[in-house]
Structure to design on (497 residues):
RNA sequence: GGUCGGAUGGCCGAGCGGCUAGGCACUGGUCUGCAAAACCAGGUACACCGGUUCGAGUCCGGUUCCGACCUCCA
């Protein structure tokens, strides 16, 4: 009766029914941030989307081991800085220890994830914490004959590998096409083939982050850490590997090659890729210089924005589109989402205070079925490749019902108590546990409640006297303070924002 | 150049062979001392040209425009 979870598997290029490798358990690996600068909104989108994936798997009852790495060994920057280690470069600039830089941005990343209400992963391994394992893997790949040493660096032999295994399957690359498109890069002369990639790189004089290895002092290659750490914590083959689209090639492709080369099996059963955040249609990226930082969104301190938007409004905004589509930021869209978010959370709040009651009205079969269908749809939509946009649409349909019950426009007893409780449970759990949205209150103690309660009592007294001038003055002042007064049939209520 | 993806109403954004997506904005109504909120109702759509089909935003072919990856990137 219940639909099954389907995931769009990048490797298969189609939606597939999700069946975990081990019944009841899911191994989930997500490529984490490179901690040499503050996370921008594009990074946040990916992590928020996978937070929902994680949350929904947990909601479905799976025991999930969620591994998300921290890349704290620098990767090569671009042609402009002679292949200097990113983290080392930043460290010199700021006259700090590399690990100090790493710690600084790791802390910032964690804070941002908390602000966005993202659950912490089960394990958050760092690349620098797994140097030994990475050296071991390099050795294994060498032993299998799929890599060679050159000037203290070790390169993966793509040509050799492609003779035994397919290379480029995930991203749909063809070796010849890749070759024709290659540019001259640093270290190209050390390679046998332009397509070969470093799995261990010899450290130059000024390179601060360096470790001893059988091939001399150096640091691990760009793609190795994920292969090593996913295998260590999730096994040689695990269920889901996620990351941004831009990692598909070469990062994920190389990961597959490394794993296959060292122990012969493909590491991942379902590959998931989130699409990019764009600004005016252009990909947001560190190197594009068009990054919008979360703080700029919160404060509104950005040329694109007329005002600030709360973290939860932003989270809601992100979840209103599907993770696989690109996602353009604009002030108008944000504004629309903010309003929608407030409407949804208002219904959430109303529902929490709503109790079932029979008032002699008979249960309507049509209403009963309609509500039950909505409940079912929530699950169906999430099961359809985590379609949060559609799920939210269903939640809005539910909101209409909830508000109608609350306003007594529709008798709550038009549905059975059982259905009502089921609606309440589903709506609450989907908003709070699956989508990870939470109410954003003024954030202080009960004092505010008490004070506003008192002020509203005063206003009611003046209203009873028909002293409209005073009552309006109170309401206007509260509105000015961003407190909205709502005169309902059952008395007065208020909300912030 | 190669590979892949996209073009949906005033804005955002789902859907992808027939069944109202949804949100925001707008209009009318209910409620209210007036408002707000809430509720009800309403309109506007699938880039272009062909084709397949009883029926196509939805499938196929072509055209135009846009983007991503091929180099670190979520």
């Amino acid at each position: 009766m219940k639909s099954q979870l389907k995931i769009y598997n990048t490797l298969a290029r189609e939606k597939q029914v999700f069946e975990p490798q081990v019944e009841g358990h899911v191994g989930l690996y997500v490529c984490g941030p490179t901690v040499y600068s503050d996370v921008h909104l594009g990074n946040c989108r990916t992590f928020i989307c996978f937070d929902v994936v994680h949350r929904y798997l947990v909601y479905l009852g799976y025991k999930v081991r969620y591994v998300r790495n921290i890349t704290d060994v620098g990767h090569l920057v671009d042609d402009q800085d002679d292949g200097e280690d990113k983290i080392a470069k930043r460290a010199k600039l700021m006259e700090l220890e590399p690990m100090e830089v790493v710690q600084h941005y790791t802390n910032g990343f964690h804070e941002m994830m908390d602000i966005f209400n993202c659950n912490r992963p089960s394990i958050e391994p760092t690349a620098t914490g797994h140097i030994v394992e990475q050296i071991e893997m390099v050795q294994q790949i060498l032993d299998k004959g799929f890599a060679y040493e050159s000037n203290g660096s070790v390169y993966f032999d793509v040509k050799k590998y492609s003779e035994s295994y397919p290379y480029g399957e995930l991203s749909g690359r063809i070796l010849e096409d890749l070759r024709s498109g290659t540019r001259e890069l640093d270290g190209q002369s050390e390679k046998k083939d332009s397509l070969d990639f470093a799995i261990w790189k010899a450290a130059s004089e000024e390179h601060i982050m360096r470790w001893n290895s059988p091939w001399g002092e150096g640091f691990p290659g760009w793609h190795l850490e994920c292969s090593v750490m996913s295998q260590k914590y999730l096994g040689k083959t695990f269920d889901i590997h996620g990351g941004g689209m831009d990692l598909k090639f070469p990062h994920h492709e190389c990961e597959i090659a490394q794993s296959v080369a060292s122990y012969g099996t493909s590491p991942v059963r379902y590959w998931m890729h989130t699409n990019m955040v764009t600004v005016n249609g252009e990909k947001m990226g560190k190197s594009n210089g068009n990054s919008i930082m979360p703080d700029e969104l919160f404060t509104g301190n950005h040329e694109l924005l007329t005002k600030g938007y709360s973290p939860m409004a932003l989270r809601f905004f992100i979840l209103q589109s599907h993770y696989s589509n690109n996602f353009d930021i604009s002030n108008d869209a944000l504004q629309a989402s903010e309003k929608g978010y407030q409407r949804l959370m208002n219904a959430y709040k109303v529902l929490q205070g709503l109790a079932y009651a029979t008032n002699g009205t008979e249960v309507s079969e049509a209403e009963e079925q309609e509500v039950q269908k909505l409940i079912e749809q929530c699950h169906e939509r999430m099961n359809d490749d985590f379609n949060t946009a559609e799920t939210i649409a269903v939640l809005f349909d539910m909101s209409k019902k909830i508000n109608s019950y609350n306003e007594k426009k529709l008798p709550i007893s038009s549905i059975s108590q059982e259905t009502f409780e089921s609606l309440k449970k589903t709506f609450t759990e989907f908003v709070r546990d699956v989508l990870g949205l939470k109410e954003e209150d003024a954030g202080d103690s009960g004092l505010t409640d008490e004070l506003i309660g008192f002020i509203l009592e005063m206003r009611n007294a003046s209203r009873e006297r028909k002293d409209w001038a005073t009552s309006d003055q109170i309401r206007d002042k509260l509105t000015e303070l961003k407190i909205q007064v709502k005169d309902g049939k059952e008395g007065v209520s208020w909300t912030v924002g």
